[in-house]
Amino acid sequence: MNILILEDEEEKRDFVVEVVEGAVSGTEITCVDNFFHFHRAVEREDFDLVIVDLIVPQFPDGPPATDNTQRIIEAIRDLEGRNFLTPVVAITRFDAAAEENFRGLNKKDINVVTYDDAGDWKKALSSKVHSAIPEIHYEFVVVCALQKEMDAFRHATCCLLYTSDAADD
Question: Pairing state of beta strands 66-67 and 55-56?
Fold first, then answer.
């Protein structure tokens, strides 16, 4: 699973990463701390889930954090963009920013979770991570009727997922 996190506060980012890693193992996480790097990432790479803070700096080493909600919506929901259909969760401390932009976020299918020190946001984020796990697709499937056939595939040097339920009968 490939996840992008836009968060400029180190402590908050670490908590978000902790929740994501606790929800799904083997996750590749890319973290950025400003809108410029976020926009570049969503243009270049496909993600299974995007987690954003709405109040972040626009550029690296630029002015302090500002409300980038509209820019984030435009970048992630660009009809021709790579991540147009990618699930997005906005995690923000600032209820006012979320409320002001609720209609735009809602219309673009971006869920808003209010971050708090009590940790109530963790369950909502964990649930969203689980729902964004991509389905497994196989190039081909081999069905074996005999135990000897299955044993031969077990010793093959390819990636193999097998069940022996039918072979035990």
Answer: antiparallel
The model's pLDDT over 19-74, given as tens digits with 9 standing for 90+, comes to 999 999 889 999 999 999 999 999 999 999 999 999 999 999 888 899 999 999 99
Structure tokens at 93: 């401390």
Ramachandran area for residue 61 (φ above 0: left; ψ -120 to 50: alpha; else beta) = left
Q: Torsion-angle region of residue 2: left (phi > 0), alpha (psi -120 to 50) or beta?
A: beta
Contacts of 32 (CB under 8 A, 6+ apart): 4, 5, 6, 38, 41
Q: What rounded mean pLDDT belongs to the chain?
A: 87
Closest residue by Cα to residue 65 from 76, 52, 78, 46 = 52
The residues facing 105 across adjacent strands are: none
Q: Rounded to an integer, what distance in angstroms lies between the CA atom of residue 169 and that of residue 161? A: 19
Contact 96, 78 (CB under 8 A): no
